[in-house]
From TrEMBL:
Alphabetized PROSITE patterns for the sequence: SULFATASE_1
Native organism taxonomy: Bacteria, Pseudomonadati, Bacteroidota, Cytophagia, Cytophagales
Domain Sulfatase N-terminal intervals: 28-362
Keyword Signal included in the entry's annotation: yes
Protein name as catalogued: DUF4976 domain-containing protein
Natural source organism: Chryseolinea soli
Length: 486
């Protein structure tokens, strides 16, 4: 090209490049990273123990906002994931447990992003509709694990074709690499939404080989309530009988997974398995920075539910204690989220969909029961909700945990058990953060428990939750007390 022609075209070329950069800068990209069974305090900067490491989650907290009071509305994989995607409570979307089918008319927020010109992609564990891994609506590109998936040598349903991976392929690495590969190949003139859904850290824990035995022989701390149900001491604290009974079950510390693993090994393997999820977060953030996408991409990290490490003598989730229903939530978005900030505002998984839709400029459907907390992220609001609600429905496969409903405010938590002859629970979370002293029978708190119970059932009634879903009794019992009985 001669010099005269170049000078003639230079203004046009400059304008075109600037326009392209401006258009890209206006794109509000989203990467949502979901971990399985990651409890709210299992991050290095939370100092749960002296040795656990999550350097990339720590970095995400430094560069973004830590939402310290994030909760799920059901502490179970499928219901929680459905609530994230629909902005609805389990009794509304009806995916009430891990075997409930997805309704044919269910709408996920990525479908709305697609209509708003977003490119959307899913990678990892879907776990709704039981083991079905077929591509779901709302995603232009799909890579799904079958059921819980496998840590090593997993198979992926990639846009309808199942591919088996070998050679010691580790699932967190595979999903992350494929997500980044898709980002490299995407159309650069459209905003994107990536849903990176990890298998980790679901039991049985299998860390990547490079992390195996990283924490071998490290000391394992026990929570203050660990021994409460080991003797009749629990009666002095007014804890329900079912909690003591569960101690010697699949989800109890004295017979965990029917004796397949000891507590200390279980605890250490959890944190070793978490390391690969943490590395995934680092790879994603490094990619965004290296490709000039850091400023206009919201990165969200969340757990689908919490996890117990011996509190009240329990492991797993499902129940309404803090360690089960509370999750990590870290959000980075340099455009308006202050680096290194945090908030005490209470938010829930049902609030994710409306928040992301508002960010994308998409109208929030009235059918969504959550509400956007974008103002909390911007720092223009310090509160979001004055109460949150929780529900869990009894499962035939895990009968040791009853149907329960709960309401939590900044100070109190009320737990109501349905269909079980037992005490309900009331805790003053400011005086008793470990939920060790049930106040339900204390006359001094009678009016508070009455008010909370009324608000809880008002919520259920107003949101269409006054019914109990039933399942057929068509397989023998799995529990250790009545095994193989119908």
């Amino acid at each position: 090209m001669n010099k005269s022609l170049l000078l003639l075209l230079l203004p046009f070329l400059t304008t075109t490049v600037c326009a392209q950069k401006s258009a890209q800068a206006k794109q509000k990209n989203i990467i949502f990273i979901l971990a399985d069974d990651h409890r709210y305090d299992a991050m290095g900067f939370m100092k749960k123990n002296d040795w656990a490491e999550t350097p990339n989650l720590d970095r995400l907290a430094r560069e973004g906002k830590h939402l310290k009071n994030a909760f799920v509305s059901t502490a179970l994989c499928s219901p929680s994931r459905a609530s994230i995607l629909t902005g609805q409570y389990a009794h509304k979307h009806t995916v009430v447990d891990n075997t409930a089918p997805e309704p044919s008319d269910i709408e996920y927020f990525p479908q709305l992003l697609q209509k708003a010109n977003y490119q959307t992609a899913f990678f990892g564990k879907w776990h709704m509709g039981n083991d079905d891994d077929h591509p779901r609506k709302g995603f232009h590109h799909w890579e799904g694990l079958k059921g819980q998936g496998e840590y090593y040598n997993p198979s992926l349903n990639i846009d309808g074709q199942r591919i088996q991976f070998k050679d010691s392929t580790y699932v967190a690495d595979l999903l992350t690499d494929h997500a980044i590969d898709w980002l490299n190949k995407r159309s650069k003139d459209k905003p994107f939404f990536v849903y990176l859904s990890h298998k980790g850290v679901h039991a049985p824990f299998q860390p990547a080989k490079r992390h195996n035995d990283r924490y071998k022989n490290k000391p394992v701390p026990l929570p203050p309530s660990y021994a409460l149900t080991a003797t009749d001491e629990y009666k002095k604290h007014n804890l329900p009988e079912w909690v003591k009974e569960q101690r010697h079950s699949w989800h109890g510390v004295d017979y965990m997974y029917h004796g397949q693993i000891d507590f200390d090994t279980f605890y250490r393997k959890y944190f070793e398995t978490l390391l690969s999820v943490d590395e995934s977060v680092g790879k994603v953030m490094d990619y965004l920075k290296a490709n000039g996408l850091e400023e206009n991409t919201m990165v969200i990290y969340m757990g689908d539910n919490g996890f117990s490490f011996g509190e009240h003598g329990l492991i797993d989730k499902r129940h309404a204690y803090e360690e089960s229903m509370r999750v990590p939530l870290l959000i980075k978005y340099p455009a308006f989220v202050a680096a290194g900030s945090s908030t005490d505002a209470m938010v829930q998984n049902v609030d994710i969909a409306p928040t992301l839709l508002e960010l994308a400029g998409v109208p929030i459907p009235k059918v969504m029961q959550g509400k956007s907390f974008l103002d909390v992220l911007k720092g223009t609001a310090t509160q979001h909700k004055d109460k949150i609600f929780y529900e869990y429905y009894w499962e035939y496969a895990f009968p040791q945990t009853p149907t329960m409903f709960s309401i939590r405010t900044e100070q109190y938590k009320y737990i109501h058990y349905y269909g079980l002859w037992t005490q309900n629970e009331l805790y003053d979370l400011k005086k008793d953060p470990n939920e060790m002293n049930n106040l339900i029978a204390d006359p001094e708190y009678r009016e508070i428990s009455k008010q909370l119970s009324t608000q809880l059932f008002d919520w259920l009634e107003a949101t269409g939750g006054m019914q109990i879903p039933l399942k057929r009794n068509d397989v023998p019992k799995f529990d250790n007390k009545f095994s193989k009985q119908y």
